[in-house]
C-alpha cells in the first residue's frame, strides 16, 4: 500500500503538541519540516549537549527529555536505536501523557518489543529512507523522498490518520508516496542487509583478493580493479537508475557473458540456506536484539570484531596501497 498527500490531513498534527526526543540527524530535519508545515507546538527534549545548542540556534527552546515527554501528545523518538530502551526506561516511560502517540523512525525497538508501551498509547512508524540532511533539503526543495510508514498499535482508532499526518508534514507523502510497511519488515530487511547481504559481499571481495594474491598479482592492481577505482559504486548507481541487470549494457560483451553465464549457473542453494538461517534464527527470532540489548556485551563484541578484521590480508593490503598513494587520492 502506498500513501500520498491526498490520504493525509496535516491539520491533525497541527492541532497537537509534538515532543521531539532527540535533535540529531532525523530530529533536527523533522522538527524543522514540521515547523515549516505549520505545526506550532513543537517541544525539543534533549540532554545538554551540542545537539541542544543546535536546537537553540534554530530558534527552539530545548528542555529536559522528562519535561518534553510529559507535555507531548505525539512523541518523536529520534535518538540512536541502541540508546532507546535505556532512555525509555529511565526518562520516558513514567512521564508519558495519557492517550499519546509514539512515533519511531526505525522499526528495531518496536519489532523486538524493547519498549514497554503504556496500554493507552498508540505507536506508529514514519521511517524516511534517507539521511536527515536529505529529509530537510528535499522538503525545502519540494522533492519527494522514500519513506516507510506503519501502524503498530492502534488504541485510539486514529493511529493511521496521525501517522499519515506526520508523514505528510515532513514531506514524506509527496510524489510516489510513502510505502506501507511494518516495524518487523523494516527492521528485518535492515538487519538482513547488515548480517547477511553485506557481510557476504565483503567476504567475496576478501576471498577474491586472497585468490588473486596467491596467483602472484600485485596489491595495487587487485585493489584498483576491485574497488579503488570506484567501479562497484558506479555499477550500483547504474543498477538503481537503469535496472539491476540492464546496467550490464555498459560492460563489454566478454564481461556480460562472464557475468551472466556464471550467475545463471549458480543455483544459490547454499547461500539461500545460510541467509534463511540468519534471517529466521538470528533476526526474526529476536535472538540478536536480545543479545545486542546488553550494551556492555555489545561494546566488547564490537571491539573484538574490529580487532579480528585487522588480521585479514585484504585490510593490510588496503593500508599498504593507501600509504603509497598520493595524498589527494587517500580520501
Ligand atoms: P543521532 O545519532 O543523530 O541522534 C543524536 C540525538 O540523540 C541527539 O539529540 C542526542 O542528544 C541524542 N542522544 C544520543 N544519546 C543519547 C542518550 N544516551 N540519552 C539521551 N539522548 C541521547 O540519531 P539519528 O541518526 O537521527 O537516528 C534517530 C532515529 O532515526 C533512529 O531510530 C534511527 O534508526 C532513525 N533513522 C536514522 C536515519 C539517519 O540517516 N541517521 C535514517 C532513517 C532513520
Description:
- Helix content is 55%, strand content 11%.
- It has 331 residues and is of the alpha/beta class.
- It folds into two domains: 2-181, Rossmann fold (3-Layer(aba) Sandwich); 185-329, no CATH class.
- The protein has an eight-stranded mixed sheet, with helices on both faces.
- Strand 2 (18-21), helix 2 and strand 3 (42-45) form a beta-alpha-beta unit.
- Helix 9 packs across helix 13.
- 1,4-dihydronicotinamide adenine dinucleotide (NAI) is lined by residues 22-27, 46-47, 49, 51, 78-81, 83, 87, 105-106, 127-128, 131-132.
Query: DSSP helix count?
Result: 16
Give the strand tally.
8
Mind telling me which CATH architecture of the largest domain this is? 3-Layer(aba) Sandwich
Poorly predicted residue ranges:
none
**Sheet with the most strands?**
8 strands, mixed
The class by helix and strand makeup works out as: alpha/beta
What oligomeric state best describes the polypeptide chains here?
single chain
Rounded mean pLDDT is 96
Shape: globular
- Number of structurally distinct domains: 2
What is the CATH class name of the largest domain? Alpha Beta
In spatial order, strands of the major sheet run 1-8-7-6-5-4-2-3
Estimated helix fraction: 40-55%
CATH topology of the largest domain: Rossmann fold
- Integer-rounded radius of gyration: 23 Å
**How much of the polypeptide forms β-strand, as a percent range?**
5-15%
Distance separating the two termini: 42 Å
CATH superfamily membership of the largest domain: NAD(P)-binding Rossmann-like Domain
Order of helices and strands: EHEHEHHEHEHEHEHEHHHHHHHH
**Distinct compounds present:** 1,4-dihydronicotinamide adenine dinucleotide
Amino acid at each position: 500500500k502506498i500513501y500520498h498527500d491526498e490520504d493525509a490531513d496535516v491539520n491533525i498534527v497541527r492541532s497537537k503538541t509534538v515532543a521531539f526526543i532527540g535533535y540529531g540527524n532525523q530530529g533536527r530535519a523533522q522538527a524543522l519540516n514540521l515547523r515549516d508545515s505549520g505545526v506550532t507546538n513543537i517541544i525539543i527534549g534533549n540532554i545538554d549537549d551540542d545537539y541542544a545548542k543546535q536546537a537553540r540556534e534554530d530558534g527552539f527552546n530545548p528542555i529536559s527529555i522528562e519535561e518534553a515527554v510529559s507535555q507531548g501528545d505525539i512523541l518523536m523518538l529520534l535518538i540512536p536505536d541502541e540508546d532507546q530502551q535505556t532512555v525509555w526506561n529511565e526518562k520516558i516511560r513514567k512521564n508519558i501523557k495519557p492517550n499519546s502517540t509514539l512515533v519511531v523512525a526505525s522499526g528495531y525497538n518496536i519489532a523486538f518489543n524493547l519498549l514497554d508501551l503504556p496500554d493507552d498509547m498508540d505507536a506508529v512508524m514514519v521511517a524516511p529512507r534517507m539521511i536527515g540532511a536529505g529529509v530537510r533539503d528535499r522538503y525545502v526543495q519540494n522533492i519527494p523522498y522514500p519513506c516507510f510508514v506503519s501502524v503498530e498499535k492502534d488504541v485510539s482508532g486514529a493511529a493511521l490518520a496521525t501517522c499519515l499526518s506526520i508523514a505528510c508534514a515532513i514531506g514524506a507523502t509527496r510524489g510516489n508516496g510513502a510505502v506501507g510497511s511494518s516495524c518487523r519488515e523494516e527492521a528485518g530487511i535492515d538487519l538482513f542487509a547488515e548480517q547477511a547481504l553485506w557481510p557476504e559481499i565483503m567476504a567475496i571481495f576478501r576471498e577474491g583478493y586472497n585468490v588473486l594474491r596467491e596467483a602472484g598479482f600485485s596489491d595495487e592492481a587487485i585493489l584498483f580493479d576491485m574497488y579503488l577505482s570506484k567501479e562497484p559504486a558506479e555499477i550500483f548507481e547504474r543498477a538503481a537508475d537503469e535496472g539491476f541487470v540492464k546496467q550490464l549494457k555498459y560492460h563489454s560483451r566478454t564481461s556480460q557473458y562472464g557475468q551472466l553465464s556464471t550467475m545463471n549457473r549458480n543455483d544459490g542453494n547454499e547461500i539461500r540456506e545460510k541467509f534463511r538461517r540468519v534471517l529466521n534464527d538470528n533476526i526474526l527470532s529476536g535472538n540478536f536484539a536480545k543479545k545486542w540489548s546488553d550494551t556492555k556485551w555489545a561494546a566488547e563484541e564490537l571491539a573484538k570484531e574490529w580487532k579480528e578484521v585487522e588480521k585479514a590480508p585484504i585490510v593490510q593490503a588496503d593500508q599498504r596501497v593507501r600509504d603509497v598513494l598520493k595524498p589527494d587520492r587517500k580520501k
